[in-house]
């Protein structure tokens, strides 16, 4: 483990903070894409004699990204598991979830710094300011949507227009 740690110290000395290069228009947030992170760390990893792999694996029926950091010369390694959480069962959602897991796993394992504000996981929970308003039963937006549904309107129309979460949908269709 000594060789890996020495190489990791070298990596930490030369890797620079990563800028956010992509935008999520739905949540009005910026993030560092997986491609950008991988490109940014490629040279510092090679200069330090380190290699990263990120296979997916299944453990007890759950899907994980396993991020493994190897020291090329000694073969020493450390690894991290990050769950792949898929909300919908489609190839697109699976790919997005794997990409998300890889970004956060590699960032955590390599102790990378992403420049910019941290929203404390609110965006990852789908709780930007607009969504938090939906969760407040006293908000005007929620009251209007709830009235629309109780007056015979379709929840699917609300979903099409606002992309509400399952949690909000459940609240909207509940009887008062």
What does this structure look like?
With 176 residues, the protein is of the alpha+beta class. It has 2 domains: 2-109, Double Stranded RNA Binding Domain (2-Layer Sandwich), CATH 3.30.160; 129-173, no CATH class. 46% of the residues lie in helices and 18% in strands. The strands form 2 sheets. Strands 3, 4, 5 and 6 form a 4-stranded antiparallel β-sheet that branches. A two-stranded antiparallel sheet has the order 1-2. A hairpin with a 2-residue loop joins strand 4 and strand 5. The longest helix has 19 residues, at 91-109. The protein is elongated, with a radius of gyration of 21 Å.
Number of folding domains?
A: 2
- Which architecture name of the largest domain does CATH use? 2-Layer Sandwich
Low-confidence stretches: 117-123
**CATH topology (fold) name of the largest domain:** Double Stranded RNA Binding Domain
Mean pLDDT metric: 81
Straight-line N-to-C gap: 60 Å
CA-based shape? elongated
Please tell me how large the radius of gyration is: 21 Å
Element order: H for helix, E for strand: HEEHEEEEHHHHH
> Structural class given helices, strands, pairing?
alpha+beta
The count of helical stretches stands at: 7
List the helices and strands and how they pair.
Elements: H1 2-14, E1 22-24, E2 29-31, H2 34-48, E3 50-53, E4 56-59, E5 62-71, E6 77-83, H3 91-109, H4 129-135, H5 140-150, H6 155-162, H7 166-173
Antiparallel strand pairs: 1-2, 3-5, 4-5, 5-6
